[in-house]
Amino acid sequence: MKHLLFSLVLLISIKHALSQDCACTDAPESLSNLTISDLSPEEKQETIQAWIAGSCYYKGIKLWGKVKYVTSFPDIKIQYVESFPDIKVKYVTSFPDKCGLWQVTESFPDFKVQVVTSFPDIKVKIVESFPGVD
Length: 134
Prior knowledge:
The chain contains two helices and eight strands; from the N terminus they run H-H-E-E-E-E-E-E-E-E. By secondary structure, the protein is of the alpha/beta class.
């Protein structure tokens, strides 16, 4: 039942994120008002990983490109980890054009991140090779 609920919530969330004016729904009416806050912490993490996996996007934000580190009003809150990351990131000085390649900038960023120690949106591991999502 837990996986069915997770799958339905994921479908609803992805449809909502991709197209607000889609006239079709595959979810039962009783589940159409579910949000990510209705999920357990484990289900939230599974949902986050599913959003990231395969698409390299988090809530419509591409996870590659020029990134600016901020202390307030981030697009994404990240936590650095050594195990079980949502994405593996390689810092580059040019051409951040593939999933997991980040170039630090102070002007005209593609997205802004804030480093936190708890309650991150995504967990990041810094790598020297094979960046991206599993």
